[in-house]
Design goal:
By secondary structure, this protein is an alpha+beta fold. It has a domain of 273 residues: Peroxisomal Thiolase, Chain A, domain 1, CATH 3.40.47.10.
């Protein structure tokens, strides 16, 4: 299709390009790279895909980040713009919806495009869970007599308000143990799902699927670089995973093998109007066709994508029977399985290129990864409709429906 095919009106928003860093293991190859540098790398790598675009034409940058307490420096989106060498006239904001931050950034950007407030918006997200700082509560008065405890900002609740009901503030793992109890999802099925994630991710890398999506990151001055997601373990069969001990309950079902790991990484997605195609110098890959947000009790967050995706589909005017590709963030195998079961969809359509259990889950970056992977899956298959969905701690979820607008390959 020619760029001119997208010039009429500003009522639709399109995904033009996506890129991300490889996702590194906790304290792994990316441990020495600051989150603002990871974010800047994602910015430059996605813009390298649209060399005709003058960066000064970008109306806004909306960036996701779940931490913000350390080197993220509060507004890491603006830091990324500056470090990437974009004109200082390009504005940027950082949004925090925890695990859904970069999907939220894309949703915000798509709305800005559809209302005519912007023509070109760069979105994405970043997280260095390795470099997330420990924090101390500031004393209410000088020289307190008691001890003060340092709190990790890597993951989960911190400095909890005591007015919060205890039921709401259980650990993410315990919340998903309860989900396993509720739906009767056994350990073996979770391990099978996790092994599938590793094998599919490895196969996708070996087939070259991620070559156009992932930009290697230099890790040291001697020329070292990370070029592939660091957490993939092909051949992680059920027998191997069955040997791992439960993490959250002595008699539980969730292990380090069937849950997503702590990770470092960044992702970026370029969105724009149809009228912006000539300035971007590329045809779009997909149209943002529907969005959904949902919330429920905080401890039930793993099940929230069910309704978020259903709402996104309704807003897109389609049903699950129309959907051929699903990218669902695998925070835990059990919550992914609970969602797939509730949707009553073909499990083979879900995360066909591997998921977060294998690829990693750097909180602020995962939504951008989902969107980029989904758009490229649709382009590869030539099929029309796909859904990206993510659960979010404290009882929320987001979902986006994409419509493939590339030429059909079949």
């Amino acid at each position: 299709m020619k760029c001119s095919a997208y010039r009429e009106g500003v009522t639709d928003s399109y995904l033009y390009a996506a890129s991300r860093t490889p996702f590194g293991r906790f304290s792994g190859a990316l441990a020495g790279v600051r989150p603002d540098d990871l974010a800047a790398h994602a910015v430059t790598s996605v813009l390298a895909k649209t060399p005709a675009l003058d960066p000064g034409e970008i109306d806004d940058v909306v960036w996701g980040n779940a931490n913000g307490a350390g080197e993220d420096n509060r507004n890491v989106g603006r830091m990324a713009v500056l470090l990437a060498g974009l004109p200082t006239s390009v504005p940027a904001t950082t949004v925090n919806r925890l695990c859904g931050s970069s999907l939220d950034a894309a949703i915000i950007a798509s709305r800005a495009v559809e209302t005519g407030d912007a023509d070109i918006v760069l979105t994405g997200g970043v997280e260095s869970m390795t470099r997330a700082p420990w924090v101390l509560p500031k004393p209410e008065r000088a020289f307190p007599a008691g001890d003060v405890t340092a709190v990790s900002t890597t993951l989960g609740w911190r400095l909890v308000n005591q007015r919060m009901p205890k039921e709401w503030t259980v650990s993410l793992g315990e919340a998903n143990e309860r989900l396993a109890d509720r739906f009767g999802i056994p350990r073996e099925r979770q391990d099978e799902f996790a092994a599938r994630s590793h094998d599919l991710a490895d196969a996708a890398w070996n087939a070259g699927f991620y070559d156009d999506l992932v930009a290697p990151v230099a890790t040291d001055a001697e020329g070292g670089a990370l070029s592939r997601d660091e957490g993939i373990r092909p051949g992680s069969g059920v027998d191997k995973l069955a040997a791992l001990k439960p993490v959250f309950r002595a008699d539980g079902v969730i292990t380090a093998g069937n849950a997503s790991p702590l990770s470092d990484g960044a992702s970026a997605v370029l969105l724009g109007s149809g009228a912006a195609a000539d300035r971007i110098g590329a045809d779009p890959l997909a149209r943002v066709a529907g969005r959904g947000v949902f919330a429920l009790d905080p401890q039930e967050f793993g099940f929230a994508p069910v309704e978020a995706a259903n709402r996104a589909l309704k807003n897109a005017g389609i049903s699950w029977s129309d959907v051929s590709a699903v990218e669902l963030n695998e925070a835990f195998a059990v919550q992914a399985l609970a969602c797939v079961d509730a949707w009553r969809i073909d499990p083979e359509t879900v995360n066909a290129k591997g998921g977060a259990i294998a690829l990693g889950h750097p909180l602020g970056a995962s939504g951008g990864r989902l969107l980029g992977t989904l758009a490229h899956r649709l382009r590869e298959s030539g099929e029309r409709w796909g859904v990206a969905a993510i659960c979010i701690g404290v009882g929320q979820a987001l979902a986006v429906v994409l419509e493939n607008v590339t030429e059909r390959t079949r």
